[in-house]
Prior knowledge:
This protein is about 35% helix and about 15% strand. The longest helix is centred in the middle third of the chain and has 18 residues, at about 75-95. Mean pLDDT is about 65; it is low at about 40-50, about 70-75 and about 90-140. The protein is of the alpha+beta class.
Amino acid sequence: MNKTDLFFQMMENPELYTAEAWQEILSDKECRELYTMMSKTQSAINATHAENDITDEMIDAEWQRLTPAHHTSKSSSHYFQLRKIAAIFIGILMISGIALAAIHISRYVYSNRDAAELQSPTQEIRISNSNQQTVQTDSISTEPKLYDNVPLGEIFQDISNHYNVKVVYKNEDAPRLRLFYRWKPEYTLEKVVEMMNNFEWIQIQAENDTLFIKTTAIPAKDC
Length: 223
């Protein structure tokens, strides 16, 4: 099985593979390009589609977005592989609350960090309440929010405001890790922490009204 076929297989059952397996497959240039392309396609799908069934029209729409990037591929195997990407990607978006670590390979890759660096003074982010406005309970949006390749710091800015907690980053790279994450305001803080901790490179510890966040380095590999 070549790496492209393995990548398709891993996208169908992402929970069956370890973080190391994902790092290995994303070290391949072609797989990395496919993953980045798939991440970008999600912005064309409204968040409300997340509650609907996958339709042929939705798959065809994603297929039309995928084909220009691979217009030089004429073989039938590539045709079905790319169409399969569209179906798989839409299916992933429809899993309630799924959080995919979208490593922004083209712009930012974690480099190896010495253990001593992780011992550097913690970076504490205090959320200012000066600009917060009092709103009525019935006016607060309960719609799911999709974060498309958004830095962890920006995601937790919203989360800290919503749950009224403080965020402390244990290493300076943590706020820059980019994620694809679907968050529902009705989630409890405990559920959000549990979902984030499913990723081996993210560690979150909740203590009273404070979240301590640490990320481990994802080594860059040559293609």
